[in-house]
Amino acid sequence: MELTNHKDHPVPPSRTGKRMVLMLLAVGLFLGLLVAFNLFKGVMIKRALTGKGEPVQTVSVVAARMEAWQPALEAVGTVRAIRGADLAFEVPGVVAQVPVKAGSDVKQGQPLVALDDSTELAQLRQLQAVANLAELTCQRSREQLAAHTISQADLDNAEGDFKAKRAGAEAQAALVAKKHLAAPFPGRVGIVTTSPGSYLNPGAVVVTLQQLDSVYVDFFLPQKDAAQLKQGQAVTLTVDAFPGRSFKGKVSAVNPRVDNSTRNIQVEATFGNPGRILLPGMFTRVSMDVGTQQQNLTLPQTAITYNPYGALVFVVKPAPAGGQGLVASQAFVTTGATRGDQVAILKGLEAGAQVVSSGGLKLRNGSPLLIDNRIQPANDANPAPQEQ
C-alpha cells in the first residue's frame, strides 16, 4: 500500500472562512460609504448656512432713513347732505302740474309738484262763505247786546259758531295746501319720477332735494382713539371720483356713545363743497392729524417680509472672512404705523442700514447678492393713482 504525503496535497480552506472574509469586506465598504455621505452632508449644510455655492441673487436696496412722521387717524366715510329730504305728499291725488325740472337748483318755497285740488278748493270756498256769514251774525249779536235786545248767552253762541266755522275753513285751506309740494329749503332737485295724470298714494316719494353748498362726512374710528377726538380738528378727504384732489374740513361732532356691536365711535366732519361736486352717498377716505410730529425710521413696505415668527428684513453686509462680495443678513424688526408706501420701523434696525427693497422673497441668510437699483419699488408717503 502506498502512503499519501500531506505536504504535496494541501487541504483547501473551508467555505465558512471565505464567507467571513466577504462579510468583513462588505461591512467595511458600507461604513466607508456612510462616512463619505456624512462628510458630504456636512459640507452641504455648511454651504447652505454660509451661502457658498448658491447662485447670486439680483436685488435692489434702499437705505433706512429717519423721516418726519405726522401721526394720523384714517378711516372710510360717507358723504351726507347738510340738509336733504325725500319729498312726498301727505294726501292722495292725481298729479296736475310738475313745474320743476330734474337736476335744477331751486329756492326755498319754490313749487315742485302740484296735485289736482279743484274739489278741495270748492269746499274751501263754501266753508269760507259759511264762516263769513257766521262772522256777520256775530257782529250783529254784539250790536244787539249793546242795545239790550239779546242776552249774553245769545252772543256767546254766535261767537262760538263763528269760531267753529272759521276753524273748518282753515282746516280745508290746510288740506288744499297739502296738494302742493314746495321746496322746504334751497337745494338741488333730483330725478323727478312722476308726470301729470299720475295717481300718487300718501307717502310715495315724488322727488329728492339736497342742499350741497356744504356737506357732512360720517366715519367711524375705534374706541381706543376716543381720547384723541375733539371738535374742530382738521380733516382731509379724498374721493375716487376726483383722484389727486383733496378737500379740507373740520370735525363738527363726535357721537357721545360707542356703538354696542362694533365698539366704534361715529364722527361727523363738515366740508365745503365748491362746485357742489361732492354728492351724498359718495364713498370717501378721510385722514385726521393727531398728536405732534415725530421722527421715525422708515422703509418701503416691500422691504418687509412677514412670516409666523414676525417681520424681517434682509440687510446687505460684506461676505464673511474668506468670501467675496455682498451677502444677505436676516434681521427681525418691529414695525409700527404705515402711511402710503412706507412703514415705520420701531426696533431691530439702525438708520443708514442698506436693506433689500425688492427680491427678498428668494433670499435666505447668507445668500450672495448683486445690487441693481435701476428700478426701485414705490416709497411715497402720499402716493397718487398710477394713471395720474
Briefly say what this structure is:
With about 400 residues, this protein is an alpha+beta fold. It has helices spanning about 15-50, 120-145, 150-175; strands at about 55-65, 65-70, 70-90, 95, 105, 110-115, 180, 185-190, 200, 205-220, 235-240, 245-260, 265-270, 285-290, 295-300, 305, 310-320, 325-340, 340-345, 355-360, 370. Helix 2 packs antiparallel against helix 3 (about 150-175).
Residues in β-strands, percent:
35-45%
Quaternary structure: single chain
CATH top level of the domain at 50-69 and 293-371? Mainly Beta
Which residues form runs of ≥5 with pLDDT under 50?
1-7
Describe the structure.
This protein is an alpha+beta fold and 388 residues long. Among the domains are: 50-69 and 293-371, conserved putative lor/sdh protein from methanococcus maripaludis s2 fold (Beta Barrel), CATH 2.40.420.20; 74-81 and 214-289, Elongation Factor Tu (Ef-tu), domain 3 (Beta Barrel), CATH 2.40.30.170; 117-178, Helix Hairpins (Orthogonal Bundle). The protein is built from 3 helices and 21 strands. Strands 1, 2, 15, 16, 17, 18, 19, 20 and 21 form a 9-stranded mixed sheet that branches. The chain has a 6-stranded antiparallel beta barrel with strand order 3-10-13-12-11-14. The longest helix has 36 residues, at 15-50. It is elongated, with a radius of gyration of 46 Å.
